[in-house]
Amino acid sequence: MTEFTPWLSLFGGSLIGLAAVLLMAFHGRIAGMTGILSGLVPPFSHDWGWRAAFLAGAVGAPALIVAMSGYTIPFESPTPAPWLVVGGLIVGAGVYFGSGCTSGHGVCGMARVSPRSIVATLTFMVSTAITVFVVRHLIGGL
């Protein structure tokens, strides 16, 4: 069961949008997480400083909120760990061959009305819908 949290979702989405706008305004860069992360993998990019700060904020801010508020984020998955690893590798291959991820295409590319990003995001969404249908209704998963 998924808990629907419209106000928290609106607030979180607004912060993601603000971060994307600020990164474009101050650095002229798209806020695609995989592109940002790739600059931190050797050989390091010449602009690794802002990349490290962006990722530290993306990981550190939620950790800080949890630490300060005492609110815990429950997470459990009925999916066995090996399947999660396989799924992560498939997503990684898709990111590589799709030249970007959902944050780059879905958030930033769609905002710029990029035809390539619109097609990529539609592909993400259709693939997700098909995967959920197959797993839940044909294979009989959760």
UniProtKB/TrEMBL annotation:
It is found in: Cell inner membrane. GO terms for cellular component: plasma membrane. The keyword Chloroplast does not apply. Belongs to the TsuA/YedE (TC 9.B.102) family. Its main location: membrane. It is a multi-pass membrane protein. Keywords: Cell inner membrane, Cell membrane, Membrane, Transmembrane, Transmembrane helix, Transport. Coiled coil: none annotated. The chain crosses the membrane at residues 6-27, 48-68, 80-97, 118-139. This is Sulphur transport domain-containing protein. The keyword Hydrolase does not apply.
